[in-house]
Amino acid sequence: MNDVVTDPITENDRSWEEVVRVANEGSVEELSELLDSMSVAEQAYVFSHMEDDAEAVVLRRLPAEDAADLIGHFNESEAARMIQLLESQAAATILQEMPIDEQADVIGDLPEKEAEAILQELPQQNADNVRELTAYPDNVAGGMMVVEMLRFRSEMTVAEVIDEINRGAEHYTDLDVRYAYVCDDEGRLVGVLPMQNLLFVKRYRKLGEIMIKDPLSVRTTAPLEELAEFFESHVYLGVPVVDDDGVLKGVLHREAVQYEEVRAAENDYLKSQGIVGGEELRTMPVWLRSRRRLSWLSINIFLNLGAAAVIAYFQETLESVIALAVFLPIISDMSGCSGNQAVAVSMRELSLGIIRPTEFFRVWWKEFTVGLINGSVLGGLIAVVAVLFDGNPYLGVVVGVALCLNTLIAVSIGGVVPLLLKRFGFDPAVASGPLLTTVTDMCGFFLVLGLATVMLSRLT
Amino acid sequence: MNDVVTDPITENDRSWEEVVRVANEGSVEELSELLDSMSVAEQAYVFSHMEDDAEAVVLRRLPAEDAADLIGHFNESEAARMIQLLESQAAATILQEMPIDEQADVIGDLPEKEAEAILQELPQQNADNVRELTAYPDNVAGGMMVVEMLRFRSEMTVAEVIDEINRGAEHYTDLDVRYAYVCDDEGRLVGVLPMQNLLFVKRYRKLGEIMIKDPLSVRTTAPLEELAEFFESHVYLGVPVVDDDGVLKGVLHREAVQYEEVRAAENDYLKSQGIVGGEELRTMPVWLRSRRRLSWLSINIFLNLGAAAVIAYFQETLESVIALAVFLPIISDMSGCSGNQAVAVSMRELSLGIIRPTEFFRVWWKEFTVGLINGSVLGGLIAVVAVLFDGNPYLGVVVGVALCLNTLIAVSIGGVVPLLLKRFGFDPAVASGPLLTTVTDMCGFFLVLGLATVMLSRLT
User: Which residue of chain A comes nearest to B309, CA vs CA?
Assistant: First the structure.
């Protein structure tokens, strides 16, 4: 089904010129109001279309809290790009208004030098917290958790807790206060306490007596797949995150895991298309975009030479039967298409957990049967085309048999390669495509030209 | 960064043989217990590895409620496959235990005949509700909403509402009861009522007086992008869904939108790899998988013939300078890689809403600058290779200039094509790739062979 074309912004367009004008001529209140009146999508659109200088003016003029809100709406790479427009002190002032985990997301996306400069400007405790968080990869619990939460020691009484909450009421309203977490003197998680329970118990009781003991938790190092599985199997909206010693480090919300799942799926798509050096947006500098894309392209051109070498090896055959040159790119492209389909299905089944990275034979057999049908159909089609084109039935046999066999090879490799890569710790989304293309091109060219060499007397 | 290899299942493996054994020899209780003890991932793995007959035995032996729970854990295509293993009456008995929206998801994934047979077996009201829901596409509010909710008329008093809730307590505990929705006599949404407010008001008051009036709502036809934007801009966990007349049709939860976002991103990846006829899992029958893949491949083979025709047109040039045949597949593949990178960035920017489908020129210019750098580098590289391979500097000039120019063409087309397709209501994830490949192949072959024809005297 085609996506419905919708552009809810168009009807109510506010051009970036208006934001620039108000930033330069209006009051701070007008600027805040104008930005507040925009949807998140409008803000993202406007800031991706403004000149860098104009963006910096807006960020500098806004109260730090409003600027933090604004930047918090954008995805991490866009937020990092905007923060880099400011001097490190101004950047630090804005970042301080964000929750620690969001600070870490943005700072983690900055080049090391810029990140360090901003960390220097942050208060020591804040900087240390950010440093601890940026050490975790984005796709493990430590990289997705929030670190601000209600955390109390088990000897505290209900009265003490209520007192503390009341004193910090302003701060706590920003947090997800469904649960409080109870720790021992070493900071180890020993219990959780649904907040509403505080209302139903005597005020002199200690948390250690009324908490739910031995609560479920996940490790800081738990990977996305395990966390997705956790939230699929449990109805909780959040789960405490602990380190190897059981010390409470943060809280992971269901929503953060879902957000990361969207990102992982989007990244798989980007990587399969050759965007592998990190997110690219056209607001980034040309040299950076060019360099990242080239790193991928240069590996591919090198791999392509391998396939070209096969053609070079059979140059004499090609010279005798020049019609073969017309069919080489078709064989290469069609095998690539068939193989990519098999790659995609393996990636899907791996992500659903319904195949394991060790089930080579099962996957190969399931691909072989489909490849046999599709190879025969495609081989038959191309054979007919070759005979119509050249008049020589043997040319049809050569290209038809070659495409049929190479389809079988392509789906076999395409199905199994993602499992192998995964099994040995590589990222199948990045590496499957080029590996597949190289091998199927080499095999395809070898099959066409090898068969032609054997049947050369019939072809000329 | 490489994905961490984790396979939480392996340590605690329960082979599908055990499930089959217990299904055949154990009691119903043992079977329920065994399945209950498995994580969702284990269940998915086990049922994708059992024989169809064995799966059917398990589903028939389980109490309908447990079978519904089990099937509810799987994704829609897998659930639909399992339901098809049963006679329509048994299938209907199980489906009835699911919420209406899940029933609709599964039935919507069945072939029309099977779907109709099951609908016949469902109670009339239930079947009508399912029919209404299956009419919505998956990616609009109507296709994602739940239809079971607390809904009261505005003339009702608080006492009547509390009474009704108490009578249906068992049913209501399954629902998300944070809000009740208030409708007029025609079913039009007129207010919402946070449930806890019922506790603080006099029991004789009418809902119309105490509800929040004119609540936010979304249309049944609102597309995914608009809904994602809604939940980005508002903190609510759910929003009422109304039809064009304002009649309350269901409630849309934030989680359902996020789930659909994951699915959309996964589908973009699958479609870009040529899985376009609907989800494919290797548990599906070979003929179905083969047919769906072939529909895509046969379009591609046809498009490939266009590019091959360009080579055929220049056959004489090729015959004179056979070394050109070695470089044709490289030009084709490298241009495809460069173009796909541009496609991916456009898809990403479209999904982030930071470009609009009308901004051809902006996107083209941003691509042109990168293409100029990358084309020069790649063209230079391939020129050096050609000279080393053949010894003739003019061959280097021909393939180098051709690859440079064709890289510019590829990134221009790759950047703009997704916008054009989107603008005119086509799905850019499906169609961008083949369109791009065909045009860049034709241009690439034309450039190499055309240049070679012009410089033929220098090349031979």
Answer: A326
Mean confidence (pLDDT) of chain A = 89
How is residue A247 annotated by DSSP? B
Residue B85 clears pLDDT 80, i.e. is over it: yes
| CATH-assigned architecture of domain B286-459 | Orthogonal Bundle (1.10)
Q: Residue B233: which of A10, A39, A349 has the nearest Cβ?
A: A39
pLDDT computed for residue A169 by the predictor: 60
Q: What value of ipTM does the predicted structure carry?
A: 0.86
Q: Is B281 close to A225, i.e. CB distance below 8 A?
A: no
Candidates A199, A238, A268, A244; CA nearest to A430 is A268
Q: CB A422 to CB B139 under 8 A?
A: no
Partner-chain contact B282 A366, CB within 8 Å: yes
CATH number of A10-135: 1.25.60.10
Does pLDDT of A294 surpass 60? yes
The closest CB to that of A258, out of B39, B262, B289, belongs to B262
Left, alpha or beta for B380 (phi > 0: left; psi -120 to 50: alpha)?
A: alpha
Q: How far apart are CA B18 and CA B20, in angstroms?
A: 5
How far, in Å, CA of A197 to CA of A201, rounded?
7
**Amino acid occupying residue A40:** V
Contact B334 A2 (CB under 8 A): no
The band of B381, judged by pLDDT with boundaries at 50, 70 and 90, is very high
Asked if A460 reaches chain B (Cβ–Cβ under 8 Å), the answer is no
Taking CB atoms and an 8 Å limit, are B334 and A304 in contact across chains?
A: yes
At B307-329, the pLDDT tens digits run 999 999 999 999 999 999 999 99
* CATH of A151-272 given 3.30.980.10, 3.40.50.1460, 3.40.1030.10, 3.10.580.10: 3.10.580.10
The residue extents of the domains of chain A are 10-135, 151-272, 286-459
